[in-house]
Queue: 2 jobs
Job 1
Amino acid sequence: MHPILARKGRLLPYLAASLPLGALLTALLARPGAYSLAQAAAVAFPLGVIYAFLGLSAWYPCRSLPLTRAKVPLLLAMHGGAALVTSAAWVLLGAGIVRLLDEVPSFAKASEAKPALSGIGEGYAAQVPPLFAVGVLLYLLSVALHYVLLAFEAAREAERREAQLVLLAREAELKALKSQVQPHFLFNCLNSISALTGSDPPRVREMCLGLAGFLRRSLAVGERESIPVGEELSLARSYLDVERIRFGKRLAVEESIEPSGEECLVPPLLLQPLVENAVVHGIATLAEGGAVRLEASRSGNRLRIVIENPFDPNAPARASGGLGLKLVRDRLAALYGPDAMFAARRLEDRHLAIISIPAR
Amino acid sequence: MPDPTRVLIVDDEEPARAVLKEMLGRVPGVRIVGECGDGLEAVKVAAEAKPDAVFLDIQMPRLDGFEAMELLDPAIAVVFVTAYDNYAVKAFEVRAVDYVLKPFSETRLAEALERARERVREKGRPDAGALAAASRPPGQFLSRVVVRDGPNIRVIPVVKLDFAEAQDDAVLFKTEGKKYRKPQTLASLADSLDPARFLRVHRSYIINLDRLQRVDLYAKNSHVAILADGSRIPVSREGHARLRELLEGRR
């Protein structure tokens, strides 16, 4: 929708701007040897208003031919052609107005009384060339103004999108912080602690400390913008240590961490939802358990992280951990945009979560 | 002195089993007759040990808590033990199923056990299938059916199901050339299955739409559905209308 036509309040001021145009046209038409002042005014003001509307049509070609993308010859051809056509139409409309003025009886009568207005019809032919030239110039001016309008709108849109991205990133961070306090995890931990109290009291302190340490570190790390992969993996390891109390020998951890990958920076707790999924939707489904595999490597300017786990493909459908995947995906998109790749692959009995981001 | 209550403990996590063992050990009149790490083991052990009550974790490998409950003798009282599962807990409350939340106190445990036993004595156990369906988050459906096959237990993925037929108090499942019988109602099965892939075409029949080959006109006003395995399933008037609607929507 044309921005001026889109809002009611804008049309009237715009049309009011056509009055000075009318005055200029009057001056043009009333030059020595052409129309009289009265004649010129009678034609010029209507023509001015008409042009105000005609000029709006430049919006459509301007929008379809953005300056940044179109080639100069195409721009010239398109706008030049439109200018000629519009101007010709304008001049013809002018002829129509003149005809009207000539033939409207009251006007003709008035022209008898005011000889100044008579002969308006014959005088028009001489006005056509200058009018046409002005029409073309006015159209090109309109094109320029429309491009300015478009640029202005594009800038506003970019600002809006930027603000939205910031909002999304903040939301994702909040969710990441919330996700540390997964209820399942906490209640299971507390239950395990309760269990150890009866069967293995010395381990209780160890587990309480382990859990408190993990929670404290993940809260602290959540405040920072990014942390080295080494630290992120250490957090994952402490989470897995706490989970190992529940699962015992069923939970094994394998690692393949390259030193080059360890120093790269990642958003804090990026991997937490993935590691949790690996345990809850992977290891927990297998009676004999399995190994969670953590992999990190750097290749050129890309950092690659893989979290792999086995699972029972025949297990009944449960809440599948899709929320965690979505969180990771959203965070990566908000922070890296199209530079981040995230894939969650279900192979026959193994699940892989693969992250590829620019190495920083 | 009354007979001790014989209980079976089922949880895939060793510490969780340890807690139950320790606490139940202190409840008067309770004797622990076994401990299992998954639902399948639980059903097998229960058949031999014949407990009065079973403490069932919900999320376990092999067979989960609900599936195990379906296969347990109906005279056995069941108490569910879960960490946190808001859908399940809501379902438990609505259907008056006994449960305890981890971590739990001894008092709470003893109470739940007592109530479960009473419930079995008076009203009988709630329907496990319906309970499982109610505990499923919206948008999730039954993905497999567990049935007894003589001394064995068979797990049938629903994608491999051809059709299900109501027979007296049971449902007959046809899959991969074999038929299995399970005491349950066709209505509760219909509620659990994905309505986009399974349709009740007749009061007594549910078919897997992926197995449907064509629908023939049988007599003047009745239709019959022909499935990939050759089965001919009667289709009622309403069933036919629903079938048309679904198939058209699918295209």
Note: Chain B touches chain A at residues 12-16, 18-19, 22, 37-38, 59, 61-62, 64, 67, 83-85, 101-104, 136-137, 140-144, 155, 157 (CB under 8 Å).
Job 2
Amino acid sequence: MDSMTIIAVASIVIAGITTGFGTMGPALAEGRAVATALTSLAQQPDASTTITRTLFVGLAMIESTAIYCFVVSMILIFANPFWNHAIAQAAGK
Amino acid sequence: MHLSPDEVILWQHGFLKLNLTIASTWGLMLLLAAGSMLITRNLSTGLERTRWQNLLEIVVTGIGKQIEDVGLREPGKYLGFLGTLFLFVATASLCTIIPGYEPPTGSLSTTAALALCVFVAVPLYGIGKQGAGEYLRSYARPTVLMLPFNIISELSRTLALAVRLFGNMMSGAMIIAILLSITPFVFPIVMTALGLLTGMVQAYIFSILAAVYIAAAIQVRESRPKPAQPGEA
């Protein structure tokens, strides 16, 4: 295998693993957050505006960790710096 | 398929490039500025008012109330900055219903610029409220050991603000593009609707986080924390 193939294989595999594993934690965390928020909504419906606002902010903060993984895998697939470097090397030869 | 609207170049002359990000940013700025100028040209204080004035009043008082809820006592002082952030990000994602438009917030350069505005504005408000010496001393609180961590947190939350907004907007556009090539009939519409919701939530998050950071910068010395309200646990 030449270096291009190795880079391509590594990037694609790692991109999949990154998104797969990176969404696991946030999924569990979001489930817990929503479950707790529903419990407190059932206990105190009067405080629904505060709970909902805090829930949305918290969900977005949790979700951003999954988004970071997504960004990394998108960069690996569509804008891979190593791939571009290898292409430049090959073109310069 | 492209990662961001930066890669769509509309016009190029030498090293000067006009890409879709810049074009749509200026278009949005024009839309927001011209729209509010047209509406505020003849305001009325009586009971009779136009529906556009009503809309703007709802938006402005709503943003002011949200800012006040975060803990900033005088929302008028921060309304200009935080309101602009919210309106820009919200309009940028709402306009995705226009065909051929790509949100400028789907480019890392736009979101980095917005996050840098927050990065600069937070110390400015902090210094304006409690003076330069007192503000800088707040970095070394509770002990001097915390100084590097406070500085790192300042930098990392700027990075997080930028990447969060970019990732959400970019992923929305990317998912729609992928779905268009797989199931081009109904699902892209559903995802576009979801994207509108995500865009509004992200606009809200971005401005609320900026408000929280400003509130933290100006309230460091305020005596004791409020007792926890019963609904917030």
Note: The interface with chain B takes residues 40, 44, 46-47, 50-51, 53-54, 56-57, 60-61, 63-64, 67-68, 70-71, 74-75, 78-79 of chain A (CB under 8 Å).
